[in-house]
TrEMBL record, chain A:
Keyword Transport part of the UniProt annotation: yes
Keyword list, A-Z: ATP-binding, Nucleotide-binding, Transport
This protein's name: Urea ABC transporter ATP-binding protein UrtD
CDD domains reported for this sequence: ABC_Mj1267_LivG_branched (cd03219)
A GO term for molecular function: ATP binding
Keyword ATP-binding: yes
PANTHER family assigned to the protein according to its UniProt record, in alphabetical order: CONSERVED COMPONENT OF ABC TRANSPORTER FOR NATURAL AMINO ACIDS-RELATED, HIGH-AFFINITY BRANCHED-CHAIN AMINO ACID TRANSPORT ATP-BINDING PROTEIN
Protein species of origin: Pseudohalocynthiibacter aestuariivivens
InterPro entries: ABC_AA/LPS_Transport, ABC_transporter-like_ATP-bd, ABC_transptr_urea_ATP-bd_UrtD, P-loop_NTPase
TrEMBL record, chain B:
Keyword Oxidoreductase: no
Alphabetic keyword roster: Cell membrane, Membrane, Transmembrane, Transmembrane helix
Keyword presence, NADP: no
Classification of source organism: Bacteria, Pseudomonadati, Pseudomonadota, Alphaproteobacteria, Rhodobacterales
Protein name: Urea ABC transporter permease subunit UrtC
Top-level taxon of origin: Bacteria
Pfam families: BPD_transp_2
Protein localization: Cell membrane
Stored PANTHER family: HIGH-AFFINITY BRANCHED-CHAIN AMINO ACID TRANSPORT SYSTEM PERMEASE (PTHR30482), SLR1201 PROTEIN (PTHR30482:SF4)
UniProtKB/TrEMBL annotation, chain C:
Protein name (database record): Urea ABC transporter permease subunit UrtB
Lineage: Bacteria, Pseudomonadati, Pseudomonadota, Alphaproteobacteria, Rhodobacterales
Cleavable signal peptide: 1-20
Family: Belongs to the binding-protein-dependent transport system permease family. LivHM subfamily.
Bilayer-crossing regions: 362-386, 415-433, 494-514, 545-565, 577-605, 617-634
Pfam families: BPD_transp_2 (PF02653)
Keywords, in A-Z order: Amino-acid transport, Cell membrane, Membrane, Signal, Transmembrane, Transmembrane helix, Transport
Keyword Transmembrane: yes
Compartments in which it is found: Cell membrane
Mode of membrane association: Multi-pass membrane protein
């Protein structure tokens, strides 16, 4: 398996506070990875850096087979390069229907003129419907997404990410506020998605991480504390110290 | 594409039908071509209102759909007016000067004509030389192009600077207001080359046209109605498709759109520039009907009124913007024109000339607080009610 | 006995000549009688000199009376008196020494001395030396003022003479300074003049530069060879200082060259020679271009019907014969050289002082912006509420001051009342606005902007309805009039100093409230996390209300301050609102030091532009706005920016 994303030696500080401290991280094609860590460990900032929202003070971020540097690229360019991001809170366009939401996310030319003259073809409609089916929203296809339940919005957002056909999915706390049944479904969607692309899940909930059954990276104070299987890291003394206090 | 778009948006057809009927009605009732029930000055008022509706549509596109509360679109409106006004004033003055010079013994030379025009136009600001910006004032085609290009380029440069540095929300509003203030202060100077606070005048006279104002006013009225119809169609088409989806997405959640891979700044810039061009066209049609344009027209307050109209009409719906603008601007001119009856309270007489703005201000507060979707929101509510009773 | 006799004599209608005569003053006057009677500017000089030379202390009074046309001469004996008209048409005569009544006379027996303006000026000059030594310091100062207003060579000697006996140190230093200046201009000895100039070289005073400038005045002369005079420089025709056109005009004016044929002259000649619709063979209708008219004129010239045109070659030839010189009016080169050096030294120092003055101007403008913006720094900067009616709160404060002055005429007292009252009024207005409008719109900034804009429209029109459209005065106390003058270039009015101090006070107040009081702590807590603050027992409603009221109240006080130097109108708020928001945004939202820096930068920039282009303050504002838009490119979050996640998106 080749390396898809390589983060090396990245440091970010805000007003003297080091949110990310010499962080190095790698992920391969079609890999599912969970990132855990206590509050303030730098999980969200890590995502901000990869997606171009925050520019690191030092370090390299290399992407894909051609090892393109992501530093300095705009968010939109990075997204077009194949990195999808899901926010902690479900963010869908609440005044638009599920269909419109998915159609907007569909992998197409994003230039304004192309979008202006865009007319969805039959395959586009089919593709969107299939996605809705995949995330369990086929019944709500023409509903305004603001009317959906919390869990449904989360799925819709994941569906939008899938519509983008990214090579790497960054998912921030997908299971927060979900019922057990919903969690199970979310797990299934993510595991399924990870078959064809890399998926990084940031999560607090150990139970959920256990279900993902994948390699785990523990962040602490902006750096990697431990990496390995969940059982491996939970036995690590440093991790126990960090989570339970000294 | 268009057929399906119209089919999906029946309101566009309804609007166009009403506009056509209205135009026909005004024509039949006018002095120029009809039975004379509507005076020429009122035809001008109606024509101007149509132009205001056009800029309101632009405002709705940038604010209601894209979520950028621009307090600068009247600056573009004014610039459009100035651009056409320059040609109107130049050409009319040229004809007057040529006429008066041809009474002399020697036939006038081009230099004498130019100096004469310069004296006529710039005498009020103590000059007779043509400023550089008047270089093309003799060409109708170029000045018409400037009607679109000058506001467009200003919007492009300003928007590029503002959006690039991710100025959003109220900060952007204030920045656009500052731009408007800067422009109006600039125009107030005699050195601006646009006659300072005298502005351009006599614009109601079309050079070389001898038809009476009652007829000319109808020409402008028709042109305004036509352009409003086209503008409505264009904007309705833009917002109906995927582009509309994207800009509404920008309005509701800019970051999400960005992480979907859309270059939010480019979209904003495109919409900002397009609406500036539409505003310029609206202004170019408005000021020949008003007869005069001066820097006060460009003052920040005008742009804020535009926001008021659109908000009262209901933003995010094109017909809302049109209804709000037509309603508020006509009612305003009725109240402030002195036609509204005063209200005697015994101890004090409420003169509407004085109190209309107080009432408008308070109404606006109430609309913002209790009816954020304005008049259009009420129509939506009625439609939904009817659907529910149907079902 | 003798007094009785005297009294009797005076009582007679026609005074007894023998008694009321020979006082020392009258003697001197009589000795110059012929000249005084003739009273002509050319001849009066010796007479005035003689009067002055008599050394009599009363002579000053005499000259003043003479100058004021109150001196009369009795025809019968030629004696001079002061005369005042009585109710019955006769005149009462008094002597010059004591003003004692010395009789009455009918107007037919008297002759009024009416010195003409030339003579009066000479009397005034003579008087100056008395005034310069007058016991009353105010009169001495007046005399100095009149000399410096209109210096004359003749006044130099009396001035020098009066320096010796001067006791008042202020007046003494003024006298010495004036003496030096007059020495430069009028002394007959070149070394003396040069010494005076060198002594004062680099002085900043306007009077110094005003004295040097006439010494350095030049006239432009044309000559074929270099003239024998104090030449400042040779001017080359065709340079920036003298265009060839202007040089030729000089030749024409001096009669050394023929004038060019202007377009008007050419056209007049053409019109005078129309024959049967043709001019020199050209049909009139064809003369619709400059070139065609030139050709027709040339044809007239060759027919000897018009004067030949002056061609470029003619001009070149004429100019080649002459050189142009700027020649000093002042003949002594030593003096002009010294003056040039002294003026250059002064100008360097003046430039430095002007920079300092500009700095002070900028500082005071910055204080005004800061004052206008500090209320916003609270409502917008800390609370994040866009209040477009902020400008109208400033206006309300100013009108409160105006109303207080209607009831309390004492300006000091009225300002002292107006400040707290303005705070109370706008605090109440702010609280009402917060309760009725703003609190429903927290976290919907665009809606807040619109709603408060509606309030702003209503308040503005309301003020117009109540107070009318004309500007109302808000007068500052007398002790704030005037200016603190550092030198002739640098000065700052007291009112601007007061505003600067007020701005500092507000800054201190703001810091104190935000950092040291419970309200400040609660405000910061509520703005950062309202839910958490509420769960800790803080009532967010109350805190928001008070904070908004505080910001509005400060705007009210700022209104009083701004009203003191600007006009109070219903539109004054909208003049400040954009600048105020700019100040806060440029400085960095949420940081009072940022607001201060923003005000300083905007004030400084605007004054800087005004300095470069002093005629146009409107342009300065336009440039300032362009500058702000560009500045935001580089620091989108302002000068002092909150960084990181705390800044939010």
């Amino acid at each position: 398996m080749s390396t898809l994303l390589e983060v090396s030696g990245v440091t970010v500080s805000f007003d003297g506070f080091r949110a990310i401290n010499n962080l190095s991280f790698q992920i391969a094609d079609a890999e599912l990875r969970a990132v855990i860590g206590p509050n303030g460990a730098g999980k969200t900032t890590f995502m901000d850096i990869v997606t171009g929202k925050t520019r690191p003070d030092e370090g390299h971020i290399l992407w894909g087979d051609k090892s393109i540097s992501l530093i300095g690229m705009s968010e939109a360019k990075i997204a077009q390069a194949g990195i999808g991001r899901k926010f902690q809170k479900p963010t869908v366009f609440e005044e638009q229907t599920v269909q419109e939401n998915l159609m907007m996310a569909l992998r197409k030319d994003r230039a304004p003129l192309a979008v202006l003259f865009f007319k969805p073809s039959k395959t586009d409609f089919a593709c969107v419907e299939e996605l809705a089916d995949q995330i369990g929203l086929a019944d709500a296809f023409l509903r305004v997404s603001g009317e959906l339940s919390h869990g449904q919005k989360q799925w819709l957002e994941i569906g939008m990410l899938l519509a983008q056909e990214p090579q790497l999915l960054l998912v921030d706390e997908p299971a927060a506020g979900m019922t057990p049944a919903e969690r199970e479904k979310t797990t299934a969607i993510l595991v399924d998605a990870a078959k064809t692309r890399a998926v990084v899940v940031v999560e607090h909930d150990m139970e959920f991480v256990r279900r993902l059954n994948c390699k785990v990276t523990v962040l602490h104070e902006g750096a990697v504390l431990a990496e390995g299987s969940l059982d491996h890291v939970t036995k690590n003394q440093d991790v126990i110290d960090v989570y339970l206090g000294r | 594409m268009n057929r399906s778009f119209i089919a999906r948006n029946p309101s566009v057809l309804i609007f166009l039908a009403i506009l056509a009927l209205f135009t026909l009605g005004v024509t039949v009732l006018s002095e120029g071509f009809g039975i004379g029930l509507i005076s020429t000055s009122f035809v001008k008022v109606l024509g101007k209102t149509l132009c205001l509706c056009l800029i309101a549509i632009a405002m709705d596109l940038i604010w209601g759909y894209t979520g950028i509360l621009s307090l600068g679109h009247f600056a573009f409106f004014g610039l459009g007016g100035y651009m056409l006004g320059m040609w109107l004033m130049y050409e009319r003055t040229r004809q007057i000067v040529v006429n008066s010079l041809s009474d002399g013994v020697l036939p006038p030379t081009p230099e004498e004509v130019t100096t004469g025009i310069g004296n006529q136009i710039f005498g009020v600001v103590g000059s007779s030389d043509f400023p550089l910006i008047w270089t093309f004032a003799d060409s109708l085609v170029l000045q018409l192009a400037f009607v679109v290009l000058v506001p467009g380029i200003l919007a492009l440069v300003f928007g590029w600077l503002a959006f690039r540095s991710r100025v959003t929300g109220v900060y952007l509003s204030i920045l656009t207001q500052a731009m408007t203030l800067g422009l109006s202060l600039y125009l107030f100077q005699n050195a601006s080359g646009l006659r300072g606070n005298n502005g351009l005048s006599g614009l109601q006279n079309l050079p070389g046209i001898t038809a009476p104002q009652s007829v000319v006013s109808l020409w402008f009225f028709w042109a305004s109605a036509l352009v409003l119809g086209l503008g409505y169609l264009l904007v309705a088409w833009i917002v109906s498709g995927k582009f509309g989806s994207v800009i509404r997405g920008i309005r509701d959640n800019e970051a999400r759109v960005r992480f979907l891979g859309y270059s939010v700044e480019t979209y904003k810039l495109a919409v900002f520039t397009l609406t500036a061009c539409i505003s310029g066209i609206a202004g170019a049609l408005y000021y020949p009907q008003a007869g005069i344009i001066n820097p006060a027209e460009v003052a920040p307050i005008a742009s804020i009124y535009l926001a008021v109209w659109v908000a009262i009409g209901g933003r995010g719906r094109l017909y809302g913007a049109v209804i709000g603008t037509a309603f508020v601007s006509l009612v305003s001119s009725w109240f402030t024109g002195g036609q509204a009856p005063d209200v005697p309270l015994g101890f004090y007489t409420v003169k509407w000339v004085d109190w209309w703005l107080v009432l408008l201000g308070l109404c606006f507060v109430l609309v913002t607080l209790y009816a954020p979707n304005g008049i259009g929101g009420l129509i939506d509510l009625l439609k939904r009610k009817r659907k529910e009773t149907d079902a | 006995m003798k007094t009785l006799l005297l009294a009797l004599c005076f009582a007679l209608p026609f005074g007894h000549f023998a008694i009321a005569q020979t006082t020392p003053v009258q003697d001197v006057l009589q000795s110059q009688r012929a000249l005084i009677e003739k009273s002509s500017r050319r001849t009066i000089g010796p007479a005035i000199d003689a009067l002055v030379a008599s050394g009599l202390p009363q002579m000053q009074t005499v000259l003043e009376i003479w100058q004021a046309k109150e001196m009369w001469q009795r025809k019968a004996d030629g004696l001079f008196f002061v005369a005042t008209k009585n109710a019955d048409g006769t005149y009462t005569l008094r002597n010059f020494e004591s003003g004692a009544d010395v009789g009455t006379a009918a107007s037919t027996d008297l002759r009024q001395l009416k010195p003409n303006s030339g003579v009066r000026a000479m009397i005034a000059t003579a008087l100056v030396q008395f005034q310069l030594s007058d016991p009353d310091p105010a009169k001495r100062a007046d005399a100095l003022n009149s000399i410096s207003r209109d210096p004359q060579a003749a006044l130099m000697a009396p001035l020098r003479a009066s320096v010796q006996g001067e006791t008042d140190p202020n007046i003494l230093s003024r006298k010495i300074r004036l003496e030096r200046l007059m020495t430069m201009a009028y002394d007959t000895s070149v070394p003396n003049r040069v010494a005076a100039i060198i002594e004062m070289s680099g002085d900043l005073g306007v009077d110094f530069r005003a004295t040097l400038n006439p010494i350095l005045s030049t006239t432009r002369v044309l000559a074929q060879t270099q003239p024998d005079a104090n030449i400042a420089q040779e001017v080359i025709a065709g340079s920036d200082a003298l265009t060839r056109k202007a040089a030729y005009a000089l030749l024409v004016a001096a009669g050394d060259a023929p004038a060019e044929i202007t377009a008007d002259a050419r056209d007049a000649a053409l019109q005078a020679n129309i024959e049967g619709g043709r001019i020199a063979g050209f049909p009139v209708a064809q003369l619709s271009t400059e070139a065609a008219r030139d050709r027709a004129y040339d044809a007239l010239v060759s027919g000897d019907l018009a004067r030949p045109r002056v061609t470029q070659a003619d001009i070149d030839a004429s100019l080649a014969n002459f050189r142009f010189f700027d020649v000093y009016t002042e003949p002594s080169q030593t003096v002009t050289t010294a003056a040039e050096d002294a003026l250059a030294a002064s100008e360097t120092r003046v430039a430095i002082s002007q920079a300092a003055d500009l700095g002070l101007d900028a500082l005071s403008l910055a204080s005004i912006y800061f004052l206008a913006a500090i209320g916003l720094a609270i409502t917008f900067g800390v609370m994040g509420v866009i209040n477009m009616a902020h400008g109208e709160f400033i206006m309300m404060g100013a009108y409160t001051g105006y109303v207080v002055q209607l009831f309390v005429p004492n300006h000091t007292a009225s300002i002292l009342i107006a400040v707290p009252l303005a705070f109370a009024v706008t605090f109440a207005a702010g609280v009402a606005l917060e309760r009725l409008v703003v609190r429903w719109l927290y976290h919907r900034p665009l809606e807040t902007l619109l709603a408060t804009f509606g309030v702003s429209i209503a308040l503005q029109q309301l003020a117009k309805n109540i107070f009318g459209t004309q500007a109302r005065p808000l007068t500052s106390p007398a002790w704030l009039d005037g200016a603190w003058t550092i030198n002739d270039v640098v000065s700052i009015s007291y009112i601007r100093i007061a505003i600067f101090i007020l701005a500092l006070l507000f800054l201190a107040l703001f810091l104190f409230i935000m950092k040291r009081t419970r309200l400040g702590l609660e405000t910061r807590a509520v703005t950062q996390n309202p839910k958490m603050a509420a769960s800790m027992g803080i009532n967010p409603d109350r805190v928001n209300m008070l904070t908004f009221g505080l910001g509005s109240g400060i705007a009210g006080i700022a209104g009083v301050a701004i009203g003191l130097f600007a006009k109070v109108t219903s539109e004054m708020g909208s003049d400040y609102i954009v600048q105020s928001f700019m100040t806060v945004v440029v400085g960095g939202v949420g940081n009072i030091w940022g607001t201060l820096a923003g005000a300083a930068m905007i004030g400084g920039f605007q004054k800087g532009v005004e300095f470069l282009n002093p005629s146009n303050t409107l342009a300065a504002q336009t440039y300032m706005i362009i500058f702000i838009i560009i500045f935001i490119q580089f620091r989108p979050r302002g000068i002092i920016a909150l960084k990181g996640r705390a800044a939010g998106d």
